[in-house]
Write a structure and sequence with these properties.
With about 1200 residues, this protein is an alpha+beta fold. About 45% of the residues lie in helices and about 15% in strands. The protein has a 6-stranded mixed β-sheet with strand order 6-7-5-4-17-16, with no helix packed on it. Helix 7 runs antiparallel to helix 9 (about 375-395), helix 26 packs across helix 27 (about 955-960) and helix 28 (about 965-980) runs antiparallel to helix 33 (about 1045-1055). The longest helix is centred in the middle third of the chain and has 34 residues, at about 435-470. The chain is globular and about 95 Å long.
Length: about 1200
């Protein structure tokens, strides 16, 4: 019976699917798979048929002799029993079996340039990979250089990470790269001096496999080849272990031939040498087919060597994926276990089909006061969740879906079928004499597949374009589409974690490891600190409770972000917003009872943790930080507590004025303005002074808050009574677990720290460190856990003494309150000396935590790279490099998505990088500095429009409605200065303005006296340049009553009105029209004026007149028929072209006319584009 049951389990698992049939009753939901339900029905029908047969046989007493009635009865009973047991087991899996693959699959392809502009090769590789799911994809001749970033979205393969080794001379030639699965336990080894070579180690279950991927140039001279052989042998030596041989696999394009590799190849010197070397180490070459195929010849130069050929279960050659690439794909499947992420299930709620009125009515009809009577607040929360979830299940359709690796969104079954057909054609080519006719069939199939992929991708992008243009598309969906173009995968897979030399791949085990690590961070320093006696500050007010009102609760519910994840209670923001006012009453009861009891509900203190990679090795658990997801109802309650507590501290001026983190109206940029102003001012002094800055970082700041310490500081600042008791309950007995791919760790209790992901956590942290700057002599700046101290150096020894004294005070503060600063020696405190002196004085060393403070020449502080002279060259390079990555994506998207969406994409994903902190690092009078930034926007404008380099920047910006970046920095600087002047920014900035009350009385005295600036750098800095700009604008503008009015006036003065294309949707046609608009196209007049070498005059060959835009549209004799059609169709739109003069008519054809409706203008633009394309004047390259 047991064997039969297992057989049926396996059968259903093999043929079953993940869809589920949900049977609901008033008391319970029964869930079985649809296929299991089908099996049950078939079993019952067969059984009933057999019973009927038996009954009739008894009645007629004519049972056939070949039937044994007892056996038949037993079989029927057996069938019923099996079906029943299967349903009772509840453990039948779809496709059951281990989550461990029994093979490691590797391919190598020399694709002769993996250019970010040549998308078809990578797209073909991506499509091909959906059929095979290779573990490692090795590529030769990538043609990468330093200008191409590895994280360029155009190079992304979903589920894979990229590592590369480029040509040594930074030229676009040669080079190798490897795409490897994120789930693979892999480590790259730095044991090779060959530039175009990568070596990695794969470990699973204590077994190792070494993979080497390399490229050898055919142009090597004898010395270069000798060097290659020495280094190649060195690699083999390093990975060989005769005593305990590990699997070795070496792949690559060796550009060498040997007849023992392919019988009809002629031996080359390089092939003989490589063959002798590999044979001496017991390496066998396993590829025997041609890998480099030309119309008249073929050879085997793309090779795979291994020391254990018995481990190779399958190897060979796949045909090239591109007709212009003559290298075939070599592959090997190895009998080596690897891990891959299992699928997991998630419940999806279909809110668009929710019965909203039914939900509201059900929640309203519950007598919550009766339900909550005579039970504590924890029980109230449990009942509240149960009621709510049941209501949502009844009124919101939902289903359980399986989350697994998915094909690219443009992949189709037809493409997969064509790949299989091409493989058959290639096998026929190999099997039947390798005829030219068969080879051409393979190339035709390859070309056909590439066209299919292009068509499929274009269709996908057109669908996305249609969604972006559809006004019904929600903001969330709109941004989701745009983000998908810039990052191929939303949630990266956590790779195997390396613990004690062993890779952990199981997600449950990884979750436990992460949870243990994160929990261990929530520990305090083992110091002898004791809590002092509470001494309440002399304040006029105290805070002991808070007032809970339904209006405030409702306001916070309506302000919930529906994109935020829900906690363990499974109640999402959308659910709460659907309930709206109906859910306010039960929440108010719970909140009030919680406050009265001084108890924060335990369920709302449980957090799901997601590890997020920070930087460094992704296999190291230390390089991740936790992101907590808490129940939203608890966060609503936290918001009420936060509002009361924050207002109390602000109104009583308790917060340190130097603290900018988590403060309303303050920001990183505000603090950077303050810091850089003091430094610039010191450097500008006569004589120029130096500034010493020390940058500290509290280690694991949020995790190391001492609960007794924060309660003491709250009490010292006047927090008392039920409010203090409630916060104590909020901090105590918190629990967390890590969730990875649907797998959860066990729960751990947190003994220290404030919860990350909570509303109250940041505020409590600010209160905890609020006294850190007390009694310090240096200038202190705080931004949450970032602490920096500065000293203007009049005497190096005195300054050094003061800084060391302050560093010791900070160390003593950290010891008292059980916190630590920069405990890791590799992340020690950094010091910078800002100076413009040629002969710099000697400064005494600084020490902190009994370690020397490292002196650096640049430091990234609050997102801005500061350097010794504050010229910001390092920061400029960083942001321009980052922005440049996105421009290639824009160039690709231009062919698919609407122009308005392209502009939005540019502003959100590219310009935002250029503008963070721009008012701090701007140099208004430095033309070279401004031009470097402006060139990025100019390149983006070219990418969006398809215009030719050399086109007028002004016309391009007018075309797109973009302000130049210098004007935007002027605008943003004045907006910030307006807030400072009107005291809408922190007072520490207002206090930096000279004579702040001198200019506010009368019209004649509104100008602000500026600083005296000796140096250009100080004159370019924020305050001097802002005051100059402020004094230059109209008095009425400076007196604008509101910030929005002031902003609107300034923006109007710099923002061009964009030139509309009126819903035209022909990408190529829009590009050609834009070139005519901006004055650089194929027309001879345009090319002559821009100095093209292939044009000697601007005259049109038709009648030797100037080939201008007006000549092209209205006069050229070559296009009479097309022009006649154009004019007739304009007349059909009731446009009387004869009433227009030449200039007006050309403007009409290029831009439309505002006096016409959008419909008419759309037709005009489309007719103009049609005329441009039908003339074929703009086909072919421009030069």
């Amino acid at each position: 019976m047991l064997n039969d049951l297992n057989c049926w389990r396996l059968t259903i698992g093999l043929f079953g699917r993940n869809s589920k049939c949900v049977v609901r009753s008033n008391s319970k939901n029964f869930t079985i798979s649809c296929f299991d339900f089908f099996i049950l029905i078939i079993s019952i029908l067969i059984s009933l048929t057999l019973f009927q047969f038996i009954s009739v046989s008894y009645m007629l007493t004519t049972v056939p002799s070949f039937f044994n009635l007892d056996i038949l009865s037993l079989f029927t009973l057996h069938f019923f029993l099996i079906a029943g047991l299967l349903l009772l087991c509840g453990d039948v899996e779809s496709n059951p079996g281990p989550k461990v693959r029994q093979k490691l699959s590797v391919i190598h392809w020399n694709l002769n340039s993996l250019s970010v502009h040549d998308y078809i090769k990578l797209s073909s590789l991506q499509a091909f990979n959906t059929l095979h799911k290779f573990d490692l994809i090795c590529i030769s001749e990538t043609f990468f250089d330093s200008s191409i970033s590895s994280d360029n979205p155009s190079l992304a393969l979903n589920g894979y990470r990229l590592i590369r080794s480029d040509h040594p001379n930074n030229i676009k030639r040669g080079g190798v790269c490897i795409y490897y699965k994120e789930s693979l336990p892999i480590k790259f080894l730095n044991i090779s001096n060959l530039n175009e070579c990568l070596v990695c180690e794969i470990i699973y279950d204590r077994k190792k496999c070494y993979l080497v991927s390399l490229y050898r140039s055919p142009s090597q001279d004898i010395d270069e080849f000798d060097y290659f052989m020495r280094e190649f042998e060195n690699i083999i030596n390093n990975i060989s272990n005769p005593g305990n041989p590990n699997l070795i696999l070496i792949v690559g394009d060796f550009n060498a031939k040997l007849s023992t590799w392919k019988l009809d190849d002629n031996d080359t010197f390089e092939g003989i040498e490589i063959g002798n070397l590999t044979s001496s180490y017991g390496l066998v070459q396993i590829i025997s087919d041609a890998t480099h195929v030309l119309p008249t010849s073929s050879s085997c130069i793309d090779l795979i060597f291994t020391n254990q050929p018995n481990m190779i279960t399958k190897s060979g050659v796949y045909p090239s994926l591109h007709s212009n690439c003559h290298h075939q794909i070599t592959y090997a499947d190895i009998n080596f276990k690897t891990f891959y992420p299992p699928p997991y299930e998630r419940t999806v709620w279909h809110f668009s089909r929710a019965n909203v009125e039914g939900i509201k009515l059900s929640v309203t009809n519950i007598d919550w006061e009766r339900v909550f009577s005579n039970i504590n607040v924890d029980e109230q929360v449990t009942i509240f969740n149960t009621y709510l979830i049941n209501i949502f299940h009844n009124f919101i359709p939902n289903e359980v879906i399986t989350i697994d690796d998915r094909d690219p969104p443009w992949m189709t079954s037809l493409i997969k079928k064509k790949f299989q057909e091409k493989d058959l054609l290639y096998q026929n080519y190999l099997r039947y004499g390798r005829s030219q006719f068969d080879y051409e069939k393979v190339e035709e199939a390859c070309h056909s597949i590439n066209n299919l992929i292009l068509d499929s991708k274009n269709a996908y992008y057109r669908r996305m374009s249609k969604k972006l243009s559809d006004p019904k598309t929600s903001p969330k969906a709109y941004w989701s589409i745009l983000k998908s173009f810039f990052c191929d995968k939303k949630t990266p897979i956590i790779p195997p974690i390396l613990i004690n030399g062993e890779y952990i791949t199981n997600f449950k085990a990884k979750a436990d490891i992460f949870n243990t690590y994160f929990s261990n961070q929530c520990t305090l320093l083992n110091t002898s600190s004791v809590i002092p006696n509470v001494q309440v500050l002399p304040l006029n007010h105290r805070i002991s409770t808070l007032h809970v009102t339904e209006d405030v609760i409702l306001k916070h519910i309506r302000n919930l972000d529906t994109n935020k994840s829900h906690g363990i209670d499974n109640i999402s923001a959308k659910m709460l917003k659907i309930c709206d006012i109906s859910i306010v009453k039960p929440l108010k009861i719970i909140f009030s009872n919680s406050l009265n009891e001084g108890v924060f509900p335990n369920l709302w203190k449980k957090a799901n943790i997601t590890p997020i990679h920070k930087k460094g090795d992704k296999n190291d658990v230390k390089n991740y930080r936790p992101i907590s997801v808490l129940p939203l109802c608890g966060k609503l309650f936290e918001k009420l507590i936060y509002d009361a507590l924050y207002s109390y501290f602000e109104n009583n001026n308790i917060f340190d004025i130097n603290q900018s983190g988590f403060r309303k109206g303050d920001s990183c940029v505000n603090q950077l303005i303050s810091i850089t102003h003091e430094i610039f001012k010191a450097l500008d002094s006569n004589p120029s002074l130096e500034v010493r800055g020390v940058f500290l970082d509290i280690s694991k700041a949020f995790d190391r808050v001492w609960h007794e310490g924060i309660l003491f500081k709250l009490a010292s600042n006047g927090v008392e009574g039920k409010m203090l008791t409630l916060i104590e309950s909020f901090l105590n007995n918190r629990q967390q677990r890590v969730v990875l791919n649907g797998q959860c760790s066990s729960w751990d209790t947190i003994k220290a720290g404030v919860p990350q992901g909570s509303i109250l956590g940041p505020l409590l942290f600010l209160i905890y460190i609020n006294d850190i700057s007390h009694n310090l002599e240096s200038n202190v700046k705080l931004f949450a856990d970032d602490t920096s101290i500065f000293s203007i150096v009049h005497d190096p020894n005195i300054s050094g003494t003061i800084l060391n004294r302050d560093l010791d005070k900070i160390h003593q503060w950290a010891y008292q309150w059980k916190m630590s600063f920069n405990p890791d020696p590799s992340k020690q405190a950094h010091e910078m000396i800002f100076s413009k002196k040629i002969n710099k004085p000697i400064h005494p060393d600084l020490s902190f935590n009994q370690l020397p403070v490292e002196r650096v020449v640049s430091h990234k502080h609050l997102g801005l790279i500061l350097d010794e002279k504050l010229n910001f060259n390092s920061h400029l390079k960083m942001i321009t490099d980052k922005a440049t990555k996105g421009i290639s994506v824009l160039r690709k998207l231009r062919h698919y998505i609407p122009r308005n969406s392209l502009i939005t994409t540019y502003k959100s994903f590219i310009r935002s990088h250029l503008e963070y902190g721009d008012i701090v690092f701007d140099q208004p009078n430095n033309a070279s500095f401004s031009e470097k930034l402006e060139s990025i926007q100019y390149n983006a404008a070219l990418a969006i429009t398809g215009a030719v380099r050399g086109s007028s920047k002004v016309k391009l910006y007018e075309e797109l409605g973009l302000e130049n970046l210098k004007s935007r920095r002027w605008f943003r600087r004045l907006c910030s200065f307006y807030k400072i002047i009107k005291t809408k920014s922190p007072s520490y900035l207002y206090n930096l303005i000279p004579h702040p009350n001198h200019y506010l009385n009368t019209r004649n005295q509104y100008r602000i006296p500026n600083f005296f600036c000796r140096t250009e750098s100080f004159n370019n800095s924020f305050f001097p340049s802002s005051i100059n700009n402020w004094n230059a604008i109209a008095y009425e503008t400076t007196q604008s009553e509101s910030f929005s009015t002031f902003r609107k006036i300034l923006l109007k003065s710099i923002k061009p009105i964009p030139k509309s294309i009126y819903d035209a949707c022909d990408p190529l046609g829009i590009q050609l029209l834009t070139r005519l608009r901006v004055g650089l196209s194929h027309l001879r007049d345009h090319k002559f004026r821009h100095g093209f070498n292939d044009i000697i005059d601007p005259l049109c060959p038709c009648n030797m007149e100037l080939e201008s835009v007006s000549h092209f549209y209205l006069e050229c004799q070559y296009f009479i028929n097309e022009r006649t059609d154009l004019m007739n169709e304009l007349r059909n739109l009731n446009i009387k072209t004869e009433e227009f003069d030449v200039t007006s008519l050309i403007n009409l054809l290029l831009y439309g006319d505002k006096k016409f409706s959008n419909y008419i203008n759309s037709n005009i633009i489309n007719l103009s584009i049609k005329f441009i394309k039908e003339t074929k004047r703009f086909e072919g390259p421009l030069f």
